[in-house]
Structures
1.
Amino acid sequence: MMSFWKRFSYNRGAVIGLVILTFVIAAAILAPILFPQSPWKMVQRPFLPPFTQDGLLLGTDALGRNVLAGLAHGAYVSLLVGLVSTIVALAIGVPVGAAAGYFAGRIDDALMRFTEFFQTIPSFALAIVLLAIFQPSLTFVIIAISIVSWPPVARLVRGEVLSLRTREFVEAASLSGLGNLQIITRHILPNALPPIIVLASLMVAQAILLESSLSFLGLGDPNIMSWGYMIGAARTVIRTAWWLSFLPGMAILLTVLALNLIGEGLNDALNPRLTRKSE
Amino acid sequence: MTLLSIRDLSIALPMGADRLYAAKDINFDLAPGEILCIVGESGSGKSMSANAVMGLLPQGVLPDKGSITFDGQSILGLSEKEMLKLRGSRISMIFQEPLSALNPLMRIGAQIAEVFEAHGALNGSERRARALKLLEEVGIPDPQAAIRAYPFQLSGGQRQRVMIAMALALEPDILIADEPTTALDVTTQAQILTLIEDLRRKRGMAVIFITHDFGVVADIADRVIVMKKGEIVEAGPAQEVLLKPQHPYTRALIDAIPRLTQTDAPEQVERAPLLKVEGLQKTFSTGSGTLFGKRRVVKAVQDVSFELYAGETIGIVGESGSGKSTVGRCLVRLLDPDGGRVLMDGVDIAHMSGAELRAQRRKLQMIFQDPFSSLNPRARVSRILTEGLIAYGTPDKEAKAKARELLELVGLDESAMKRFPHEFSGGQRQRIGIARALALEPSIIIADEAVSALDVSIQAQVLDLLAELKTRLNLSMLFITHDLRVAARICDRIIVMQKGQIVEAGPVGKVLHDPDTAYTRSLLDAIPGQDYERALAAAD
């Protein structure tokens, strides 16, 4: 465990990413304490620029709402959507990929054709269609994002499992009389974990982007303040009050960048070939 | 006259490695036309020393002190650009694994021509003509076809010949060969050794030959250097080092070589066979044979029949692709045989499935070749050893106690239970693999090249362990190997396989000393170091 942190912190970008992400998480957790009022509430005159009034550090938007409060509450939504949809996507993708890779043959064919069916449709278009059918609530946003983001997981896991199942320790396990489920969960998946973790960190970033894009188009949950919604609402006034689009945009950029940096750091730390070099 | 002279060379390893120097105080000279063998176990620094001559040390590994003088010029610390001029044209190198050293997407002819191109020699058509000539010189059958072939279309031995052709292209003064025959079959190995010997004589080229196999050393070396943990422990003319070794380490290495000549056939008692294999068949096919390309069918095992008695060890030997491993895998049902019967205690297990198979499989366990990939890197030894027992319904506590007993049985400490496989050496890992195979108290063990990946001295220890366990636990063993010397050491009977069929079977003394078929004879003739072995036997 110690050496894991050592290797992770060897990548400076990953540490910076971790610092930014910690900050975003803190903002999300502290949002209800720091800004107990609803972020939708009007607090001052509209279009108040940043750094002009105490208590409203980042000014107000077109309807006089506190931008800083909006960003903090938006952080919560972004992280929630990112995490939960990634977990759901993993919950679909890992079993599908593991079954396809392990059993091969017909099962593999069937599962992979099913996966490709989802992959051939552009994921953003599919998410829009799904949300147009469902009601635009947070739950359905998460479901829609999960549905469009599990196929890459399934493909990755299948590839890993395909290469692991021919390894001698897996053959030895089956000679020891272990069942298929035990072999998959105890011998194959733990060894396939590093790339899955790396992919998951990138999927969180992808999900945050997707949620923002959907909210920007007005397909998000109308009752929840999110970064994408803030940009969408401010786009009509971008020439007079550019900061209203710029600030949530920066929030998205930094969070996604942080997650990508972390993903890369995890990749370095979990990649056994690099490990041997550094030791 | 010396061509290459190395003085007090030390190569430092990066901080935190298991020792300070990859190689320390290395001294040797190489004369034109001489074959120098560097021998040692894995991790002895033999490859590092050779890489230093080529200026090809891995990142973070630096020559610390000393000098390398080649043809009167000091080459240690030359710039990359100056080294490029030497590499390939005056000193060249061949490697262990010819498949990974060749570009899979380039035709053989183009790869050889590229060597000339890199050094700006000759023009297009001349390069091609030279490539053809080189292929002829290294004895590739049908060079006209080989020049247009891709690496995957050639066999392992042919690929190594191509590598040698490339290394010879610019007529170097020194050829460095890093375990060039380790990945090859004995018969191919013998051919490659003859080729190197011939080329040396014809071209007056010096060769540095790195190997761990004393048999090979005995066959080709003029002088020998023995390395241990980065230091030269003994050096001298081949005859002297091999027949009158001074250093105890050299003596230990030589004693560890499995020999053909130490077989005392056990008395055969008539018993009922434990395992009876009748007409085993297995065919592999690739391609669907419908729309895309021709269906390729490989008959991996054809009509193999034999009987295994209690307490007996049968060796299955053959070259790679002879189907010997496929037989083992069909028996434990990692592969499903296409036909034939495998009778264990009178029950046919070849076509069983599900719970029935599971119950029978317990009696038939396997030891794998590669101690690094046969243990789950993320499982502790305790789990590796108890898992099978628990799967067959042994309570957790009993399984743990049993695992401790097993560790003791294979000569490991109880503290090993809590450790992960990567904390052990190759030999120790193989012991864990053996303990795992014994956990379910099988009556038959199938060892698939179980010692091929180990150094000779460790190989000897593991073979001794297997022999001891066999008598103690009254096991029967099927020992699959490509190395006839290893088979001679441990087996009672030997089955020789070729192209999926049994060509000869019989007691070990008969097969190894008075074989009936030409194929077995050719396998025996190809074993390196036979004259040496006779000389050793005479000396004893």
Note: Residues 2-278 of chain A form a domain with the MetI-like fold fold (CATH 1.10.3720.10).
2.
Amino acid sequence: MGMSNDFKHIQAAHCETGVTTNLLRGIGIDKMTEPLAFGIGSGLFFAYIPLLKINNGPAIAFRTLPGHIFSKTCDSLGVNIVRKKFRSKEDAQKALDKSLTDGYAVGCQVGVYYLPYFPKQYRFHFNAHNLIVYGKEADKYLISDPIMETVTTLTTYELERVRFAKGALAPKGQLYYPVKKHIVNDETIKDAIKTGIKRNVFSMLTFPGFISGLHGIKYTGNRIKKWRDKLGLEKAGLYLAQLVRMQEEIGTGGGGFRYMYAAFLQEANAYHNNGQLLQASETFTNAGDLWRTAAVQAAGIYKGRLGSQADFNVMGDYLLEIAEVEKYAFEILSKIKWH
Amino acid sequence: MKKEDVPQDMSALGKVTKEVCYATDRSGKYVTELSKGWDIKITALDTAWQDIEKRIAAAKEKIVNNEASPLLFFMEKGLMDINILAGYTGFWKWQIKRHLTPKGFKKLTDKKLKRYAEVFDITPAELKNMNGHEQ
């Protein structure tokens, strides 16, 4: 069994956007970049789920559900998707081997807990990681993990173990890859950008409720102000550390994906030539900077340097301010007259 | 964030791989820059691990006081809860709850001990006496 035809590993900031980009480039969509995949896939998000607990802390998401970015990006570009989940480990391996023999590079959802090349400190029961299997040599699968600088390998046992990780969002051996049905040119990308932005305006600005989108950021800001009294200083610190870890995940530069979205809007401008895109891009850069400043404040609290109610109020107010800045940016985007 | 402001504080991940960050160059154009890590993030992760250490210490104490079986120690050490452990071992949750008591643990067959041991990447003997995992 060989390698899928000349697969090229490009390091990315985030796993799913990286996998999406590299898979799409693999089927000949050379103009795909990580920010484009993120924006076309409408990946920017925020949600705070009050009753759910992850690692004994609050459940906060800065991007959409796993698998969502890949599906939306392919859908907007008119690319077909093959996606399969499995009950049996044997079937999962057979299907993977078959796709590799057919010449496809294959995306897999995996858990990081048993992922051997990850540093131990990062190996939590987090099951929404993504990587690409691009070939097999003897008992070794060739792995392109987009957050790593170079490609690596996993044994059959190691790969099976991470594909069948257990717990929340268990991957169930899920594999996926794109299949091109027609030529994707500049015009297709241009249209897809428009679709992606409109969909993201809806999920962040328009979608009703108080826990997601900009409402969710505001809601979280107000909740944080109450954490000190409600949870006690120690637990409140743990909660804030969790917020920062979610905001950071791996490779978002501290801005909770806001910088990546700002980069996307600059690239979008190259296709649409519209000053409003650049204006919104700058606003998202400001939002990213504010998220970083908020993280520094949070660190002051979980490191024990800060801890008064006033410090929690400052922290909460940062989020209220961020919500306003992002609202302004999304309003710019919502007013664009598309051609 | 400007390219020159991308933090370069060595993290545990930074020793294995640098991370890609999006930041702006002098003209305001977004480019990618590699980062070794960020102090704020490192301490957030440290905070999470300190909490885990506390949970492990509490588990040890319970075992010494004969309030829990060694399974609790390895479950906490493996960052698991009963749900995750049930997923990996295939045991029912009520079974695991029973195995978490000293009495229930003693009744475990070698076969069942092995199922737990495999999940924790240890031998059944290590699971029984917690040797080599005291630190």
Note: The longest strand of chain B covers residues 19-24.
